[in-house]
Amino acid sequence: MHRHYRSHYRVIPESPRWLAMRKRYKESEEILTQMALRNNRSIPEFRNMRNFVEEEDRKRGMSKKFTYFDLFRTPKMTMYTLILMYAWFVCSAVFYGLSLNIKNLAGDRYINNMIGGLVDIPAVLLVIYTANAPWCGRKRTLFSGMLLAGITLIGVLFLKLAEKSLTEVAFGQATVALAMTGKFGIAVSWSASYLIAAEIFPTLMRSIGSGACSIAARIGGIVAPQFVFLHEIWSPFPFIVFGSIAIISALTVIVLPETRGKPMPDAIPEWSWTSCKDSKDSKHSELPMSDIHNNKVDIDVLDDNHLEQSSTEILLKGQTKEFFAV
């Protein structure tokens, strides 16, 4: 297989656009010339390509760059960001915490692990339906999943208090049932949190916002094993922690807006902490997408693939229109 890939490496030339964007003009021109000759096309004008690359470099140097600090431009955006980051933290901590705590449940750990994996399937299918249903939407799906997880996991505490009135088998089975129900609820919440996080941030900051939420989720995954160790102090302790943070998250989610059926935000609000007003109260509070298309503002995360696609427009204007159509 290694030899197979090496043979392709020798036969297939490097992308001329990729080479041009890295200012390896000579190699790019040689490949384009060979392509033109083999397809009986006229050799393209390479001067336009060089001018385009230099212009793009100049624009990138003058571009407006967005950072994680821009997620806190306004009080409202700050609130949404912190709520979503906490929700992702809770989803990760509870989801992985319950998965790791399966070893402490009664019954066969392998069967419990299988059940823990199977409950994720109906959870995702349920989100597909409820998140798009007019009577539910993203926000209620996220809230309901968090609340379900919180209530059922806190229920393990009351089950422990009533342990003396139950048989050992009944207590073990009831604990497993509550734990799996809680895992189902947190799986619903996590799936819904991906949707609402992708739809609540402005277009130019969507990847940054999702990245911030993902960072919070990774922190939740790091602390999850530490929560599981609380079982050594008292067996319901991990469930109490998981249930408590889930209920708190459910209460904070209430203030989030519903994003189902709403246009995704494109404009970037101006900084408004000084006036303590939201961006909609300012005349020049938004940066319209028309400015982006007119090259007044560029995107920090613009990669070379986008630039290579744009360079095609220059090459298509002249003699190479038919050449690239082949």
Explain how this protein is built.
By secondary structure, the protein is an all-alpha fold. The chain has 14 helices and two strands. A two-stranded antiparallel sheet has the order 1-2. The two termini are 31 Å apart. The model is unreliable at 275-326 (pLDDT under 50).
Structure at a glance:
The protein has 14 helices and 2 strands; from the N terminus they run H-H-H-H-H-H-H-H-H-H-H-E-E-H-H-H. By secondary structure, the protein is an all-alpha fold.
Largest sheet: 2 strands, antiparallel
Low-confidence stretches: 275-326
| Count of helical stretches | 14
**Which strand order spans the largest sheet, edge to edge or round the barrel?**
1-2
**What structural category characterises the helix and strand content?**
mainly alpha
- Average pLDDT: 80
Query: Rg from C-alpha positions?
Result: 27 Å
Shape: elongated
| Count of distinct strands | 2
Range of helix content: 55-70%
**N to C succession of SSEs:** HHHHHHHHHHHEEHHH
Oligomer: single chain
The proportion of strand residues reads: under 5%
Distance between the termini: 31 Å
